[in-house]
Predict the structure.
Amino acid sequence: MNTSTTVLPGQPAAIAPDVHWVGALDPDLRQFDIILRTANGTSYNAYAVRGRDGVAVIDTVKAEFADDFFARLWACCKPAEIRAIVLNHLEPDHTGALPALLAAAPDARVYLSSAALRMLKGIVKDGIDESRLTVVDADTRVDLGGRTLRFLHTPYLHWPDTQCTWVEEDGLLFSGDVFGCHFCDERLFNDRVGDFRFSFDYYYQHIMRPFREHVLEALALIEALPIRLIAPAHGPVLRDAPRNYVQRYRQLASPLLTFEAGEHEKTLLVFYISAYGNTERMARAVRDGAEGVEGVRVSLYDLAGGDPAPFVDLIEEADGLMFGSPTINGDAVKPVWDLLSSLTLVKVKGKFGAAFGSFGWSGEAVRLIEDRLRGLKLRVPRTGVRVKLIPTDEELAECRALGRELAEHLVGRAQPLHIDFSAPGALTT
Ligand code: FEO
């Protein structure tokens, strides 16, 4: 058996006494889940934890790497010894070898979250004996004999099903995607591999950041644990100063920006781009209208002069978002779409949104932006303002009203929407 700290083909790697890494290395991967670049490939980390009374297998690997996984697993235990199969996360990069493992260890119980239970049939298509399944909660204990597994409810890190597994006697946290990164290095441990900090932060930004509130809830659970080693589902095993990585998550999940607004102010960001100055005039009117609402800090940004990335940081912490775009060839313009497409990186659900814009003959941009905002689950309380070419004074007043109304929503002073059901289709405010 491999007792060195370098992963060898077909050999498990000890990460603690009677605890082995039985995962797979994928050094050639250059793109993960379509959206992530992986300059150093990745690893699919799975683990075997032995107690006096049997073995628990924690997660598996992507299907193409099942042979690597089973070679390592059978080198450190027999199928009949497996008492528990723990599913921290059902994404296929961790469950590709699950059907074969279920078949190879028919007496093993499967421990998973309630959300995972609802997903499992979509993953194990050839059926599963439901009498083998145990849905865990914070009180569940799996006693392996001298080693006890507990479970932390950490949903949305990175799917609704995700959980962490804690071995309390040894201070081992099997964290799933949390504290992982796409960084393949056969030296396995964080104190031996190359510098992977860029990948750790990149992984957080692209996988965890949209679920920042859930990250903070999970950190409250994890920070209370006397952790001695973190075994994530991707990347290096964190045996040296593991709490530093927990602290780094705390930093990454905390507000990024100096808080420019007062403690009790709401923030409204108005983004625009303008071909002939008409949408810009509308944007300034929107801002003027919003500024008249006490308790709202209003900012105005011309997308012609900015890269989306810093705006995404602003948006993450804002309360309201407004977008102004001309219509060109029946669409909003590319800088607006570039920013809107970046919003999947952060949580925008529940923020207030609105759109406005000048147009020449068709004017679809406002509706298309509104559709996108609703698709991202922003609240769009009123129809935006569309102006044919040069805005009149009356139309600029309408823009001011739009800004004022959205700002009033931010501070809870907007007039409630009344729907007269006696006049179908009629909406009055
Ligand atoms: Fe590594 Fe969300 O799967």
